[in-house]
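Inputs:
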Amino acid sequence: MRRRLLVTLCYLVGAALAFPALASAHATLTRTEPAFAQRLARSPTVVELRFDQSVKALPNAITVYSAAGKVVSGKARPGTDRRIVTVPVRHLERGGYTVRWRAVSADSHVISGVFTFGVRHRAPPATEAFGSSGPTTSEHVVRWLYFLALALVAGGLGFRLLVVRGPLTPKAERRFYHVVGLGAFGVIEVGILAFLLRAEDALQLPFGSFLYGDLSPLATTRFGTAFVAMTLGFALVSAFLFLAWLTDRTVLLWPAFLLALGFASGLSLSGHSAVDSGSSWLSELADWAHLAAASLWVGGLVQLAFVVWPLAPELRRGAFLRFSRLATVLIAVLLSAGIYLSVLRLPRVSDLWSAGYGQVLLVKLGLVSLALLWGAAHHFLVRPALERGARLFAGLPRSLAGESAVGMAILLAAAVLVESKPPPRPTTAPPVALNSRP
Amino acid sequence: MQPPAELVHWMFATGFLLLGLCLLAQALVGEDVWRQRPWRAYVWPGLAFLMGVLMWPVMVFYTNSTIHMVAHGSWAQVMMLAGGAELGLVRGKLKNSYWRLTMPLAFLVSGTALLIHEQNGWLFARAAFLHHLIGWLMITGAIFPLVSVFRPRSAVWRSGFALTFVVLGVLLYCDRDVAPVFGHLSSQAGTPHR
């Protein structure tokens, strides 16, 4: 009976081999003129889209907007080659322009997209195309969750390798992997969500059309490149983490830790420190150091409060003392990088209370001060007592949990800060030339 | 810069074919013979996990539509999960055999993602035909790993599980955009192109 079933299954496979089907995807935009984010020396006469399959061009298939939102294009028309759609444009003045397009693919799906170009001017990033409304509260929350996840994975790994070093109890080891695994999963998932939210804002499409929206221009922005690199990086982090758990080899946590710290730089290389005026490699480095130190601090506190303290009592004292020493270094890095970046982004002290960015920074500074006081109490009161061999305070785990909660609140303020626009830097007026008659 | 989509499909087709053949060999010779070399137990779950990791570059580089990106992301995750769970069981890190339910879950998620991603009927166009076929193959094929969880020694269910992967590999090999066969099954699918 079983043999007959196996033979039947083999026949089915043979039939599948004999009658292969074929596949293709929806039409894909393969080339545009002007290209994505291209800076042109003079005004183009047409905007042209080329697809990999024939498409049906609707009259409003391509609309070109100026930075002020004025439509500067005519009616779209299909080319003799059905894969090409063009639209004439008026003579364009100097500035950035947004192209929004829609076409009906051969399989009847409506595909859409947006890209930008500039005429004698830098093209705005696709995330800042005309019509996009900028970061929303959802994006602030998502960014915060991203920071939390990053802290759990990078900070957790740092704590395990730099503070605990030796073996953990089986229960503590299991919880360590749960916490760090949750962080790695969170970084990937929340990263995808953040990218899609930004893309939805740039494309300005209803949900149904957004599903078929072309995201490739967004993937070429700094934000998109960071998303690509960080998703790949954290997929590798997850793989190393899994292998370390599977084989019980702590040494495999090192590549995961270094990759997590390294790929966290994607945020610094695509944020204010990389694109705003006055940014340089130093501001990018400071931003990364700030982020890395904050992640190690908050993630380490979580490990100390929720992994070592409840599940590895014999390691409590040593872990607390070593983490206290590490935290001193982290706080020093955090403060010096933070002060440098604040001075860079807020050239006037009055910006602290007059600009929205400054006000959020004030809230963040208040929270940081609270966390520093809390940390100082641990460092100057608890640590010496523990070094003398005194008994562990009963309220210490709650105190550690409280400090990590303040750290998480700081990350929320940081998330809002990252999505806010710093005030413009004052420009020095060029010297006025005096008219001197000969 | 990007390789054509069909090349990526063929690469994964090779992976699924190898995976299916390993599983088929295991089902035919039996668990005891297959595991006479201990490393063999790790081959197919390791391959599934690796394919999950390799799906991430596909997810981030093929951004021509949101739904493609999300679908590729879901496949990457379920392959890593199912392969990882099996590796954990083989290694002894996981004790509960219900972790094997991650495989039917992976089948269901993959099939559903394929069907949601294709909104046209079966005979609309070649793409639609293959998407429906693979989608339903994965959903109906989920029965094999599901029953195998409760009847792990049954050669029939394990063979069905293995052959699902073999058929999936074959269907992915069939993804050739330039071939004229089944080009336009419906006149509504637009003018013939390419």
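The longest helix of chain B spans residues 66-91. Flag for discussion at group meeting.
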